[in-house]
Amino acid sequence: MNIDFGARTREAKEINEKSWSIVGNIVKGDTPQDRIIKRCVIATGDTGFCELMRFNNDPVNAGIKAIKSGAPIFTDIRMAQVGITKRGHKSEIRCVLDVGLEIAEKRGITRTSAGFISLAEELDGAIIVIGNAPSAALTVCRMIEEGLHPALLVATPVGFVNAAESKELVRTMDAPSITCVGTRGGTPVAVAVVNELVEIALRK
Predict the structure, then answer these.
(1) What percent of the chain has pLDDT above 70?
(2) pLDDT of 8-33, one tens digit each?
(3) If exposure means fewest CB atoms within 10 Å of the residue's CB, which of 69, 71, 173, 180 is most exposed?
(4) Domain count, the chain
(5) Looking at residue 155, what is its pLDDT?
(6) Which residues of 193-203 are buried (b: 16+ CB within 10 A; e: fewer)?
(7) Residue 110: which CATH number?
(8) Does any domain span residue 9?
(9) pTM of the predicted model, to two decimals?
(10) What local confidence, expressed as pLDDT, does residue 204 receive?
């Protein structure tokens, strides 16, 4: 039985199970990594994500450990904050857009980048989730180079300006990360990754 925290009615649960059954014929394995890939395919309706997802520095175990310990989760935009399940874990989910406006205006940088900079002292040991903003992914990479140690960095920004490049840089960092290759990605992918990690953590 697959868990979908948003599927609460009988019909919703039936749709969820059918989706997993269909994708199970595409992604054959059932390792935690396979399950994350399956959920990303379901979230996007794009089987291409079978080949696009990348896992660096043992991120699944790092993510499970962080979720079980109640590590905070910081998102780049509110869509990710809203999309991540609030059930099955005790982690606080915060959006960096709630802080950093003065830094953004003073430095002329994006609000997401400024938000992560503003919260720098709270990011060690946290799960960082970036599904939309390549600028934020680049900023977090610089922070890692300067000594930041997140428990897990999920970075799947989408688009044609720095999206592919920022994810490539993430994969060079000495930090557990889950990313995707190229211009595709987006908040639904990042949310799918985290929600499946929550389910996997519950099964452990």
Answers:
(1) 94
(2) 666 777 777 887 777 777 888 889 99
(3) 69
(4) 1
(5) 98
(6) bbbbbbbbbee
(7) 3.40.50.10230
(8) no
(9) 0.91
(10) 76
Instruction: For tokens 């987006």, name the residue.
Output: 186
**Is residue 98 situated within a structural domain?**
yes
Amino acid occupying residue 117: I
Going edge to edge, which strands form the sheet with 152-155? 53-56, 177-180, 152-155, 127-130, 73-75, 93-95
**Which class for 26: exposed (0-12), middle (13-18), buried (19 or more C-beta within 10 A)?**
exposed
The residues, any chain, with a CB within 8 Å of residue 25's CB and separated by 6 or more, are none
